[in-house]
From TrEMBL:
This is Extracellular solute-binding protein. Signal peptide: none annotated. It comes from the Bacteria. Pfam families: SBP_bac_8 (PF13416). The lineage of its organism: Bacteria, Bacillati, Actinomycetota, Actinomycetes, Glycomycetales. It comes from Glycomyces tritici. SUPFAM superfamilies: Periplasmic binding protein-like II (SSF53850). Gene3D superfamilies: Periplasmic binding protein-like II.
Length: 432
């Protein structure tokens, strides 16, 4: 039976991929390194800086493996997914693929990625924490190796706390009630010059996952079903509506303006709010843009439940269509396990997910990088979350649309929650 894979990229057209069932390694048989000259392809998305560093890492790899030639290719985010879908459909996928969590299930479930257990002689995963490694698994099969690791954090502007005489919270004990009280206090003591906080969730999948876990819920089940309770989602919006009414957070219009301005132009970077949420790795651009004393704190409620989680910045995967899986796996091993690669790549793709490589690059980190590393090593992470199922890649813009409708008073939280979950389920069912 022929199966079709629908890949939807942000800003990219949908591409149908026929004939992806039961894809195996192109070479067949045992996975072995060749003594003969071999050429493999490696693809990634990103800008010129990433390409320059990756080319340097490829050169270092080829110096150690002179019979393996690596041809690198890269594109911007939207063009990348169109190209990958097209080449995969043509049975011409690059051997080594930079993969994102949003699309891991779309490719892994259809057999277009190699089970990396088949390459264990060439790719060592023993140095990774089990919870981190699990983020690249689907139904227990290791389809991808995380490159960088991030965690959600509260990002606070200590300068504004000091300016308005508000004490920094104890992030090992604070609750969501504490957060609301502090946000309101900051707004009041500033005389409205700032708001205490921005939105506390509802603009991305990470914030929804965290809130759901605090309430004994999950966004997705292990089988890819949507398990988010509409009442739990509605309670997040109700919390934000209460803070908007008291002035503890920005107005709906200010929130939209801040989000549109991006990380470096948003309200946290420009000192319009004293608290916000983000991933620990975002601290570097925020520090540069704000010039302020920014701190990373654990999220409210962390003491009540292990709701936080490791989020891979991206992964390396090996195509099941590769005719040279051993050489492809050897390249991935070099990129994630070898100091020579870490010296070149540093934290460009995020704080290294491999603890040994993270420790190796720590001495050369800037202030933001060091804060990000310190946070991920001290914050408590719960079990890995389920990988986003096929059809779920449009989650963030979808939740942002519903959050805006709620905050502008166009829907009640419960109405929006019911409608959002119905729409998400429809998208996932359509991609099955």
């Amino acid at each position: 039976m022929q199966r079709r894979l629908i890949i939807k990229g942000l800003g990219a057209s949908a591409v149908a991929l026929p004939g992806l069932a039961a894809c195996g390694t192109g070479g067949g048989g045992d996975v072995e390194l060749s003594d003969e000259p071999v050429t493999i392809r490696m693809t990634w998305w990103g800008a010129d800086t990433r390409a320059e560093l990756t080319d340097q890492a490829i050169a270092a790899f080829q110096k150690e493996h002179p019979n393996i030639t690596v041809k690198g290719e890269f594109k911007d985010w939207a063009g990348y997914w169109d190209a990958l879908a097209t080449t995969t459909a043509a049975n011409d996928s690059p051997d080594v693929i930079q993969m994102d969590e949003l699309y891991l299930a779309s490719y892994g479930d259809r057999g277009t990625l190699l089970d990396l257990a088949d390459t264990s002689d060439f790719l060592d995963t023993s140095g990774f924490d089990a919870a981190t490694l699990a983020t690249g698994q689907i139904d227990g099969t290791q389809y991808a190796i995380p490159i960088g690791a991030g965690m959600l954090a509260s990002i606070v502007n200590a300068d504004l706390f000091a300016q308005y005489g508000v004490e920094l919270p104890d992030d090992t004990t604070w609750t969501w009630d504490d957060y609301a009280a502090i946000a309101n206090e900051l707004t009041e003591k500033s005389g409205g010059a700032i708001n205490g906080s921005g939105l506390t969730g509802g603009t991305d999948a990470g914030s929804i996952r965290y809130w759901a876990r605090l309430h004994g819920n999950e966004l997705y089940g292990e089988n890819g079903d949507v398990t988010l309770d509409p009442a739990v989602l509605a309670s997040l919006w109700e919390y934000n509506l209460g803070l908007a009414e008291s002035g503890g957070i920005e107005s709906a219009a200010q929130s939209v303006e801040s989000q549109s301005a991006g990380i470096e132009g948003g309200s946290l970077a420009t000192g319009k709010i004293a608290m916000g949420f983000g991933y620990n790795t975002q601290i570097t651009p925020l520090l540069a843009a704000s010039g302020a004393d920014l701190r990373l704190l654990q999220l409210p409620g962390s003491a009540e439940a292990d709701a936080n989680f490791i989020k891979p910045s991206m992964y390396w995967a090996v195509s099941s269509q590769s005719e040279h899986p051993a050489e492809a796996a050897t390249l991935v091993d070099f990129l994630v396990n070898h100091e020579a690669a870490a010296d070149i790549l540093g934290t460009e793709r995020g704080i290294p997910a491999n603890p040994a490589m993270r420790e190796h690059v720590a001495a050369d980190l800037d202030e933001g990088g060091q804060l990000a590393v310190d946070y991920i090593e001290s914050a408590t992470a719960g079990p890995a979350v389920a990988v986003t199922p096929a059809g779920g890649s449009g989650f963030d813009p979808m939740i942002q649309r519903y959050t805006q409708e709620v905050m502008f008073g166009e829907r009640t939280p419960q109405e929006a929650a019911d409608a959002f979950i119905d729409e998400l389920k429809t998208e996932i069912d359509a991609a099955a």
